[in-house]
Design goal:
globular, alpha/beta, binds zinc ion, two-stranded antiparallel sheet, 243 residues, Rossmann fold
Length: 243
Amino acid sequence: MSISPGSALSLVLDFVYPRSCVVCHRAVVERGRHLCWECWCDVSLIGFPFCSWCGDPAAGQIDSHYVCSWCHRLPPQYDRARSAARYEGPLQHCVKAFKYGKSTHLAHELGVLLEACVDVHYGGEIIDAVTYVPLHSRRRRDRTFNQSRLLATHVARARKLELSDAGLYRTRPTPSQALLNAPARRKNVEDAFAVKPTGWVNGRSLLLIDDIMTTGATVDAVARALKEAGAHRVWVATVGRGV
Ligand SMILES: [Zn+2]
Ligand SMILES: [Zn+2]
């Protein structure tokens, strides 16, 4: 068996500097992994039942056409939204390290989780391009990267799809959604997104990627901009689903 110089170097580095789990700091034996097996087992994957529109997990006995009261009251602009796992426990720790701790090496691991979600929920759909929630240029400069772009890049590569880069932008900086209630979140991102008039969305079915979805106000505002610019379908996929 031959081994490439890059793999050999990575083996040596793993030996000299053993990787530890980003959550519990135990040693990680699987190559290329940054979360140990025990922490992966504590990630709460989202399975049925959930709202067929926004993908929000639901309790009890419901059928696959169930639409939650939020979607009835304020029908989303996107066609469907799905998330890989609940934003809690090890996943929350991992996403925070990725997003705020600049641990961009976690993009691969989170991207694998997101890609599995895309495969399960959108595997039968014809997706023309992958796009992502943009950051305002000021925040992009401060953070130095856009976490959603890194995730979208992973999904686009894995599925051999076009990544529609820089076709979407924020028209103004918006305060973080984290501390706002649902109506304030909607107001905060209202008309905050625009699409460059290059015809890249016209009649196309797009997969919109974000890291976390809570009330869905942000992805909904982006979907509105995409639909107004002529998108045929907007399907949303996020790594985490907050409450
Ligand atoms: Zn761990
Ligand atoms: Zn819903």
